[in-house]
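lol ok so funny story. i was supposed to be doing the assay writeup but got distracted and ended up predicting the structure for this chain instead. priorities right. anyway since i did it might as well share w the group, maybe its usefull for someone
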Amino acid sequence: MTPRKEFKPRKYQPLIIDHVIAHQRCAVWAGMGMGKTVSVLTAIDLMQLTGIELKPALVIAPLRVAKTTWPEEVAQWAHLANLRVVPLIGNEMQRVRAMREKAQVYTINYENLPWLLDYHIATKTKWPYGTIVADESTKLKGLRVTVKINKKTGKEYVSGQGAKRAKAIAKIAHHTNRWINLTGTPAPNGLMDLWGQTWFIDKGVRLGRSFTAFADRWFKRDYSGYKWEALPHAQGEVQKLLSDVCLYVDPKDYFNLADPIITPVYVELPPNVRKHYNAMERALYFQLETGQEVEAFNAAARSIKCLQLAQGAVYTDTETKAYEEVHDEKLSALEDIIEEAAGMPVVVAYHFRPDLIRLQKHFKNARVLDNKPQTQRDWNAGKIPILLTHPESAGHGLNLQHGGNIIVFYGHWWNLESYLQVVERIGPVRQLQSGYDRPVFIYNIIAKNTVDEDVIESRINKNETMEVLKAGIKKRQGGKV
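and the output, tada:
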């Protein structure tokens, strides 16, 4: 068994610990690799030891994090030797059995939270948790509820629309003594993301009792009537309102970090593919040279087809997953990057399934990042020269910095949070904290004059997807859409 380490907190970690203890309901915004998990566990341990909190804590997290990250974090540190973490993971029988084990902290994935609530209602058992930790709290950003009063009983109840899981959690959120939001990207797509998360802290006191009230106060609709735009005063006012309960830890204040070195690698679409691509941007369908029609019924679907064309393979039938290869330009560019890496391991991020199939066929020594812990260990041990990953699979709870410092985005997608998550698996903070004095290299393989460029612009500017898409198409078509 690996001996436990002595906890020597970094300069900012006591700030996190004190913040969590001092505020019954709060948020900690700290990036990946900043040690917020051990900080929160330390705060929980101190509160339970001193009697501030007498009930166990419940951590809600992505599946991989709930299953391994929190238990493994406790096992690392000597000062947490008396703290036990039990994951409520597996089938229903396994979860019920785990609930009966005595522990100071229980963990569960977001998908199973509604089941846990229903279980306590069905068995008529009291809600046993005194503290709830929402790890990666951006999963709660879709909440759209209001608290109403039952005229007959006088009791509050939650009403409204929104993300199913967030609504389920909302029913018990304010029946719990303490609530802690944890995330490194609190507003990946703008200020709109903050209302749902903050509601769990204060039930709408700071940002508005309803999402509508929040939106009406700090946003306006654009000319189309669909997109919300933040008013000039919104950023400053929202930050000020949240400053007492939200602690932001900026790594640049504590580490000598070098920004990643980002290199765009452009490829040209072959003439026949360019013809199909331009047709897809102009119309609702295009016809491949085989005669197979590919239809797109709206702008969103059309953008997906354009992205597929840019990568080099396009679905011809989404039900059967049939696809057709249209060019190898990105494969060739990736070959050059890997050759330039001169044996250094490389992470390659893809988006569409056909891209993965083609990458595996082209690079025989590549392996796919899966749920097996051994894959992560092999990568970090330098046994995998090319690691293929989908950004959604390389997110929370993974430490890949030991295996390398080069990442290539073969394919692109609009979600900024997913992009940031996969970058930070080997990012500057993790490199530095693991003792590696080396820069992080990011290569973006971009099909020139395509929606690839729009996606990257959207991520940089955090703009609305369709607005950037329309502007990009208009520009490429000489001002006419």
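The longest helix spans residues 36-50. Confidence is low (pLDDT under 50) at residues 284-289.
back to the writeup now i swear
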